[in-house]
Amino acid sequence: MKLTTLKPRLQTAGGRLAVLQPIRPNTVQRKRGWAGVQDRERIRKRDCGLCQECLRQGLTSVGSDVDHKIPLWKGGSDDDDNKELLCITHHKEKSAREAKDRARG
Ligand SMILES: [Zn+2]
Asked: pLDDT tens digits for 65-104?
């Protein structure tokens, strides 16, 4: 096997990974500023300050981040029923998964 034939192929794959899909024009923009703060506080209270993903796994952890169950860029809404409180670990895991999805297109 010639190693020289592998090199350009790897470079192409690496370059493709770096390209993110453009945000759809009809994507709901998340609330910012004071409205966003109030939203997050409301979800935090509703979810009793606990990570909802941990609860589903039978664990009890303090939630820190309010997350969109279906990401806005995937067409998810900015309504309360599309949001839940997650711990840092689960939020990071979900974000990493979604970033991969998004890069794949
Ligand atoms: Zn969790």
From this structure: 999 999 999 999 999 999 999 999 999 999 999 999 999 8
How far is ligand 1, taken at its centre, from the CA of residue 62, in Å?
8
Helix, strand, coil tally for the chain in percent (to 5)? 55, 10, 35
Q: Any idea where the domains of the chain sit in the sequence?
A: 49-105
- The H or E element spanning position 12 is helix 6-17
User: Is residue 87 within 8 Å of residue 63, measured between CB atoms?
Assistant: yes
CA-to-CA separations, 5 to 22, 26, 80, in angstroms, rounded: 32, 43, 52
- pTM check: above 0.85: no
How remote is the CA of residue 69 from the centroid of ligand 1, in Å? 13
